[in-house]
Specification:
By secondary structure, this protein is an alpha/beta fold. Helix content is 21%, strand content 34%. Strands 1, 2, 5, 6, 7, 8 and 19 form a seven-stranded mixed β-sheet that branches. It has a five-stranded parallel β-sheet with strand order 10-17-11-12-13. Strands 22-20-27-24-25 form a five-stranded mixed β-sheet, with no helix packed on it. Helix 1 (12-23) packs parallel to helix 2 (61-74) and helix 1 (12-23) packs parallel to helix 8. The protein is globular and about 65 Å long. It starts with a strand and ends with a strand.
Amino acid sequence: MKYDVVVIGGGPAGLAAAKAAYENGIKKILIIERDKELGGILQQCIHNGFGLHRFKEELTGPEYAQRYINMITDLQIEYTLESMVLNITHDKKISMISPEKGYQEIEAKSIILAMGCRERTRGAINIPGYRPAGIFTAGAAQRYINMEGYMVGKKVIILGSGDIGLIMARRMTLEGADVKAVIELQPFSGGLTRNIVQCLDDFGIPLLLSHTVTNILGKNRVESVTVSKVDENKQPIPGTEIEYECDTLLLSVGLIPENELSRELGVKLDRRTSGPMVNETMQTSISGIFACGNVVHVHDLVDFVSAEGERAGKNAANYVLSKSIPSLNSIAIENGKGITYTVPQNIDLDKASENIDIFMRVNNVYKNQKILVKNGEKELIGFPRKHLAPGEMERITIPLKFLKNIEGNLTVELQEVL
């Protein structure tokens, strides 16, 4: 079977990309989703706070997802569920398998990668101790409680203060569990400030910064965990151990873009984000292959995921209709002081037709800074910020007029405002 645009992933990024491709002139579109329903991770995020930017109202995750599912249905965009992509070739042939249709091969003129991300597990952080029941990733626990109806534990410790860990601290408390503490290795939280307030402070749940779990006790089920303070090198400090009696340990220790397919395809990946390197159109290093959403970099707001998906869908449509290829007039965006990463990683100056949005994260908590964009030693534009934190993604918009007649690459860095 042949399609103009194939979208791999039916979460918020993939749905927005398919809709945008349709609205920009492409009608033969296929969305491939490995789960039994569209909507991605949003289906298990039953708390509110979604859609404030996109729909100007507060929605739950399933409500937000349903808005886009309705759009896809109304446009009669084709999708297939419980379908796993096995391989993608450079000439855009896709091998996939599903219980209903078995093995299939399809061809596409353009492909949009929107596979989302996955959670890091205990094996990724090497916590010593026994291997008892009662250890879950926060996302797995969220699915058990919100979608399957199972309570995962009664006395809970949460390691990691990313947004999903904070949200699950509140969720477990509301279900009657005793959440004893949230433990964070860094000296700052990895989550949004609003989630720290609404999910921890409002329920009296302590947040222990610069601490980590150093041992897990229990043969059949978790019985207790040992928590230790860490030094500036993230090493446990002897004599600071605290033992918490608990039956459950939830891990919220980071998300990793789901890029096995991207890697096998040969897409160039950014070691800082673990996602594809893209330009301002969301095109990867392979012509006609686009990427968007959490497969590129982990977002904190689904509204930005949708916007990124729309950009990828629009430009994938333009690629199919015009067969445009990247020009040689491309500049890289380099990261300077205080910046962990930027997306996009490069800009195609010949193709750029509108102001350029750049998303980034900082590497520490900062006060009274300016996000400075430079070309060599020349300062092009600055964006003042009173507060910056690693858990909150930042966005700046560079007007195209600042990118005229520049030589060499751009650098984005922080500069203290005195």
